[in-house]
Protein: Zn-dependent protease
Amino acid sequence: MNLLLIMLSLAAFALTIWAQFRVKGSFKTWSSYQASSGATGAEVARHILDRNGLRDVPVEPVPGSLSDHYDPISRAVRLSEPVYYGHSVASVSVAAHECGHALQHKESYGALVLRHRMFPVVNFTSGVAPFLLLAGFIFKAMGLMLVGIIFFSVAVAFQLVTLPVEFNASSRAKQILVSDGFIRSHEEEHGVNKVLNAAALTYVAAALYSVMELLRFVFMFLGSSSDDD
Structure:
């Protein structure tokens, strides 16, 4: 069973690496395909926010590549410079996706609210869990191992909650881009799907890897418990 779990964890880890390459490849491919609307990522974001009564939410450029995010604390949409200034299908796709999170925040979308409430706890447990697990395995301290597993499971739960948040934001983005005329052809729509689906795959892969790791820790704990009996 342990060998099977290790193999599954390795497969899930390989999937996370592949997903990262895929999202970068999709973004690069569709960054060279200009959207027929001619709008930049910043213009798309501003339009979506204004249209939904979020004129007080700023759209800000940030350095880096694929560093785009919505900051729920500052209530700001932050776009990487290639997305902020870009006119490509990739740029408008990512910009619309991040605005999807702003719309979720406005509507108190359930999964997003839960994710925000979990974040302070996860921020602590995810940092402590590895040390507890390591100490528990080294010193055969079953109590530490169990607490480490519980803490790690909180981080796994956080990643699972993130999935519907990301899928919903992408669904909103696709619908808005088409309905508001930022995407005007089937080929462009295909590009939007490629970019956003590749991004979603990274979250799926990360969650799958975490679940496999959690199962491996649980079976190691159970194995150690039976050895002590």
